[in-house]
């Protein structure tokens, strides 16, 4: 078992253990979530068919421990990561007389986790929730750190709240149900964490690209979560160093929006990291060239790095990003392998920056 303790506004553990779904009640008890509570499992239709059924190991384990279980299932996908989904969940909780002593379980990927977390933060001004991520991406990214939210028409994650979970449970066996492209989504985020603050992640990813090895993926995930833990504990509210976790994300969110979310988050992050690192090298903003190493690793995992959108299209989408403050935007720039820094530029210079990166990639 791997246990990582996050000491933010709420202290909680991230548990990574094979067959953890079959001992969820025990793990909840250790986190002081007692079996006299109501629990509402919130999930999407795809994940429900794998892990949310009443006959499944998670439901059976919790119900046998005495928890009173409810379930809310919604359609998956970014198009349903909306306020209307949150409102429907809140109505369901109210109709079933949930109280502040009860809790929610986010069972699924990042969309389920974000929606559930925002619902938990909103219902009765805040109730407990547990993250049980079923994708590698959610495990290393959205399940830890307390950022919750939904999309608005103008852009991604523009409505939300900081609300830390009470526990995070990752069972590596869930990776067996994921297609390769979804594993790659998570690997992109672990590579991001490595370039931010842990060169050993880069070394391990470089020397072992076996995406079918659950032990290897769990070790990478634990290292990535450890990077996130350090940053979240230092800057929980995202006013300073936590912005380092956005390496590649300003452009990734723009790419996702331009594609109407047909390009997945992890694949968009890979493209975003490539463009940003190429531009940073070209503009001599790095201590040592970084783009070559980033491209080398991403190509080893066969990430498609071409971007089908123009700098002007990406700029227009990026200028609606929540990270913009006034006429400034803060970018995350790789300074060396395993170290990034923040650099604020004028929004008027963003298109030039993106153009520089995309042009540089053509010659690499």
Notes on the structure:
By secondary structure, the chain is of the alpha/beta class. The chain folds into two domains: 2-177, Rossmann fold, CATH 3.40.50; 181-362, Up-down Bundle (Dehydroquinate synthase-like, alpha domain), CATH 1.20.1090.10. 44% of the residues lie in helices and 21% in strands. A seven-stranded mixed sheet has the order 1-2-9-6-5-3-4, sandwiched between helices. Strands 10-11-12 form a three-stranded antiparallel sheet. Helix 7 (180-197) packs parallel to helix 11 and helix 10 crosses helix 13 (311-318). The radius of gyration is 20 Å and the shape is globular. The protein starts with a strand and ends with a helix. The mean pLDDT is 95. It is found in: Cytoplasm. Belongs to the sugar phosphate cyclases superfamily. Dehydroquinate synthase family. Residues 72-183 form the 3-dehydroquinate synthase N-terminal domain.
